[in-house]
Amino acid sequence: MIAHDLESALNLTYAWIKAAHIIFVIFWISGMFMLPRFYVYHQEATPGSVEEKRWIERERRLRNIIITPSMLLVWAFGLTLAYITGAWHETWFQAKFTIVMLLSGYHGYMVGYGKKLAKGVRPASGKALRIMNEIPGIATALIVILVVVRPF
After folding, report:
1. Nearest residue to 100 via CA among 36, 21, 37, 35
2. pTM of this structure
3. What is the Cα gyration radius of the chain?
């Protein structure tokens, strides 16, 4: 009975959960577009300079206030939607889920990269970071196609 009541409540709030999911996807992806660009500018700053310290703080705030909380909420609302709709067995959803997992891994990589930058380690070139900046856009395009078109 409790499980049925929970499912009924989730179904009633489906549109709100979906809206929240989309809102936090926008926040997360927007931040993921910004972060590699911040890293490019950070790497161009003189090590130990006031400008570099400002970039370290901007990056920390972007990660801790916008990107990571948004990603966690995307996961929470997305998993709730998958539960409500029973999408787990749909091929399009499995492909989307895989891309979101990879994008979450990229997110973790970029957070780690920022921590290295803050310590003065600069493992990637500005060109490599500019290329990495394209990953969220490609992932977003693929996800939107999978969700809207459902090609399989």
Report:
1. 21
2. 0.89
3. 18
Structure tokens at 117: 């930058």
CB 75, CB 19: distance < 8 Å: no
- Measured CA to CA, the distance from residue 24 to residue 30 in angstroms comes to 10
Q: Which amino acid is at 125?
A: S
Task: Report pLDDT digits (tens) over 43-88.
Answer: 999 999 999 999 999 999 999 999 999 999 999 999 999 999 999 9
In degrees and rounded to multiples of 5, residue 75 shows phi and psi of -65, -45
Which residues, 6+ apart, have CB-to-CB distance to 28 below 8 Å?
A: 66, 67, 70, 71, 74, 107
**C-alpha angle 103/110/147, rounded to 5°?**
15
Domain count, the chain: 1
- Where in the sequence is the domain holding 14, given as residue range(s)? 2-148
Q: Where are the alpha helices (DSSP H) in 62-125?
A: 68-85, 91-118
- C-beta neighbour count of 10 within 10 angstroms: 14
Half-sphere exposure of 138 (CA within 13 A, CB side): 9
